[in-house]
Amino acid sequence: MTEETAASLPGYEHVYSGKVRDLYAPIDPATGASDPTRLLLVASDRISAYDWVLDSEIPDKGAILTQLSLWWFERLADLVPNHVVSTDVPEAVAGRAVLVRRLEMVPVEAIGRAYLTGSGLAEYVERGSVCGVALPGGLVEASRLPEPIFTPTTKAPLGSHDEPITYAQVVAQVGERTASGLRKLTTAILARGNEIAAERGILIADTKVEFGIEPDGSLVLADEVLTPDSSRFWPAADWVEGRVQRSYDKQFVRDWLTSPESGWDRRGDQPPPALPQHVVEATRDTYVAAYESLTGRRFA
Fold this sequence. Notes:
The chain is an alpha+beta fold. It has two domains: 3-101, 2-Layer Sandwich (Phosphorylase Kinase, domain 1); 104-278, D-amino Acid Aminotransferase, Chain A, domain 1. It is 29% helix and 27% strand. It has seven helices and 16 strands. A hairpin with a 3-residue loop joins strand 1 (12-17) and strand 2 (21-26). Helix 4 crosses helix 5 (176-198). The chain is globular and about 65 Å long. The model has no long low-confidence stretch (mean pLDDT 94).
């Protein structure tokens, strides 16, 4: 949260700031009490990588993520309800904020994989499985999986690292009903996303989804969904099994951070350096391209 944002939102009380989003509660002008049922979810232009929030910001990123999530929420509405109440928000955050239901959030990172890459590939090479899910032999970088799989992680505090966990560990943490719902909905969202994205020339390799829980125990899709921040997008025309794919997402930032040019040691305890301007501009262009390719709309 920036001081400028807080000052430009009279009638709202700051509740929490995550890696890239800030939460505010509407305040009742008559009583001065904050609304216990609603939150204003504001997407910033901050960007995170390797569990660090970078000093650099990506212009328009918050608006792109918000508008793309809204587009996806409409296309997933028959699979799962979402947290959006209204897009009528203060002018200071127009286009990058939504009014949402206040929910108890599931304390697990729900991750689905349709292709093998990244940490999933590393675990497969070592064990032949990912998060306890056994996979066929002979898979390589960017292999398409027989069907989307659920590969959850812990939801670590800001500054800490998420760790892979098995489905049994999820059951132990949240119960069988919630764990089953997380697995079913995460893989269904990824499958639906790939059906739609494939028609637009994009493959969704993997995605992270956030869920809240209603008082009756049902799950609600929250935060963002199928964006370049939460997912790995690949141009379908370029996909070749066995090599690292070109991405429409923040993999561009990750690649620069781990390049000799950045000089940063990912395994050390020092924060990443600021991004050079050419990386900032290229990252913004990538986010815009993902938005425009998926929605068919021009980002203004």
